[in-house]
Amino acid sequence: MVATSDYDEFHKLAKRCLLTNTLGSNAQRRHRHHRETMIENISSKLHDTLKKDPIRPINFREVFESELFGLAMKQALGKDVESIYVEEIGTLSRKEMHKVLVMDMMEGAIDVDWRDFFPYLRWIPNKSFELNIQRKHFRRMALMNALIKDQMKRIDAGEEVNCYLDYLLSEAKTLTMDQLAMLLWETIIETADTTLVTTEWAMYQLAKDTIRQVKEENFSQIRYLDAVFHETLRKHSPAPLVPLRYVHEDTQIGGYHIPAGSEIAVNIYGCNIDKNYWENPEEWNPERFLDEKYDPLDLQKTMAFGAEKRACAGSLQAMLLACGAIGRLVQEFEWQLKDGEEEKVDTVGLTSQKLHPLLAVLKPRN
Ligand code: HEM
């Protein structure tokens, strides 16, 4: 039997808390004002920039990334912190915090240790690799601890905010400080990365799409927005590989013998562009999801969120954030790629982010 990844008591506690306070449907309803503020801020930043220079291409990522990080911080800690003094590393601005908590960790996840390709040489030290990972981990933990301590002062002063930190402190009292820091950090990095990647690819596809001539009316239809979201996830899966699954017993898959003790990964990207399943899989075509065979409420139309017990806990949040932003941005502006942008489809990093940030020329619609 191939079991899903280990699913122990700690994992169950963590996932239950995360869904109850932050990512489940009731929780997402409570966090609606954060989403509305985020989209409002993005819209006014874009309008302000265009007022100053209407023909200058906009770097969409710069605006969206900063606002999404703010939402992640509010959801996790109750506050979008502008700067913080961390005893071990000094004072960090908001941009530096984003680097320590998100960018450095995403880079670290794909750092290659050459010894993985030559396991019999594992005894040779690879000091620079190890030091680099340790340094990133050290900075992340130091910053998370400082952020938590700061917010604990607020909580001790009797101020209650509906955020994940407050919830964990009152409902999961057995957590160690390190566990608390890691659980909070996990929601920050997951909120701040994959949703950005998906929204940026969706806006690229929409801005490029001269055939469909993106119409404002389409985007007041939830069904069309949903189709754009899922088609973007299919074509540009931000998690191309599902985390490893541990094989508990000898088994057969697709004619291959898989011995107990192996670890296997599922190629999500492969499933999402499989010609046996999708018609013209290379084409970005949201209309395919308007077919009645797809339930608009089903978040698992593609393999992008994984499957079974370990399936993504944040799929609802990702959908609400991305669809909310895409709908509003298309209703407010006409989008056109800057000349030469069309060919820029290379990806980078663990989550297949667009290598070149999307540059588009925007025109406010009345
Ligand atoms: C478009 C956006 C996203 C995509 C494509 C995505 C994809 C995935 C995938 C493929 C997995 C692994 C599933 C498996 O092992 O079967 C996963 C796990 C997870 N994701 Fe997401 N994710 C997204 C957004 C988010 C967001 C916004 C959050 C929350 C802040 C989140 C939280 C999680 C968590 C907590 C897990 C681990 C679940 C577990 O181990 O039980 N994800 N995600």
Automatic annotation (TrEMBL):
Its cofactor is heme. It is found in: Membrane. This is Ent-kaurene oxidase. It comes from the Eukaryota. Keywords: Heme, Iron, Membrane, Metal-binding, Transmembrane, Transmembrane helix. SUPFAM superfamilies: Cytochrome P450 (SSF48264). GO terms for cellular component: chloroplast outer membrane; endoplasmic reticulum. The keyword Membrane applies. PANTHER family: ENT-KAURENE OXIDASE, CHLOROPLASTIC. It comes from Gossypium mustelinum (Cotton). Heme binds at residue 312. The lineage of its organism: Eukaryota, Viridiplantae, Streptophyta, Embryophyta, Tracheophyta.
